[in-house]
Amino acid sequence: MFVLVEMIDTVRIPPWNFPRQLNEAIAEELNKKLANKVVYNVGLCICLYDVIKLEDSYIFPGDGASHTKVHFRYVVFHPFLDEILLGKIKYCSQEGVHVTMGFFDDILIPPESLQQPAKFDEAEQVWLWEYETDEGAHDLYMDQGEEIRFRVTDEVFVDTSPTGPAAAVTETPAQPGQPAPAAEASAEKKEPPYTLIGTICDPGLGLLSWWNS
Predict the structure, then answer these.
(1) What is the three-class DSSP state of 32?
(2) Minimal CB count within 10 Å: which of 13, 99, 121, 189?
(3) Cα distance between residue 145 and residue 154, in whole Å
(4) Is residue 31 within 8 Å of 16, Cβ to Cβ?
């Protein structure tokens, strides 16, 4: 679930931090920059593990801060494929079951990856497993807040870096008195930078209450 990733970055230390120990100041700046951020194709950064190497520091003309090239290791949340994880159901929608691990919310279990047969209850806004027994079918609901065990099947990274004003230039100007729907639509469509796709359609996976009772 958690891995150590070796990284290299140039850290800027402002002058008011010069009296501090260099390692402490660098650790603080790295955590400010990376903690709780997603690095593309790497994962969700959690915290600094250690500093491996510090290269020479430089002060450039016009900037009173020091700049140091740092080799360091960072703790990153990046589960491997087929890893079994434990989370809680955040909410359900037509897209599937959305799961949170407390510090990471972008986990989706699509409908085809639920225990089958499954159906979506529109009134309750929850998915349920129509569990067949000798006495007939029992509806096992996947309620919000329930603990769920799932297997990671895929991961999706999205580059959310700013793209600049090029898209705005190509848009057709709106007629007087008419809104600009394209701008509103692009603002609403905000994809998470890192998403995990899971499944619970294997024995032992799903709500913990299903298998404990």
Answers:
(1) helix
(2) 189
(3) 23
(4) no
Distances (CA, A) of 47 to 32, 85, 142: 10, 20, 33
Residues of the chain with pLDDT under 50: 167-170, 183-187
Structure tokens at 178: 């008419």
**Nearest CA among 33, 200, 41, 22 for reference residue 118:** 200
Q: How many other CB atoms are there within 10 angstroms of residue 6's CB atom?
A: 10
In this structure, the number of other CB atoms found within 10 A of the CB of residue 34 comes to 21
Condensed to tens digits (0 to 9), the pLDDT of residues 121-157 reads 888 888 887 877 767 677 788 888 889 999 999 999 9
Write down the pLDDT at residue 27. Answer: 92
Token readout for 101 is 């691990």
Residue 27, helix vs strand vs coil: helix
- pLDDT of the residue at 77: 94
| Cα gap 93→113, rounded to integer Å | 14
**Distance separating alpha carbons of residues 54 and 73, to the nearest angstrom:** 12
Residue whose structure tokens are 């899971």: 198
Query: How far are the Cα atoms of 17, 84, 180, 188, 195 from residue 191, in angstroms, in the given order?
Result: 37, 25, 21, 9, 9
Q: What is the dihedral of CA 53, 17, 45, 157, to 10 degrees?
A: -100
- Phi then psi for 210, rounded to 5 degrees? -65, -40
CB-count exposure of residue 150 (10 Å: 0-12, 13-18, 19+) = buried
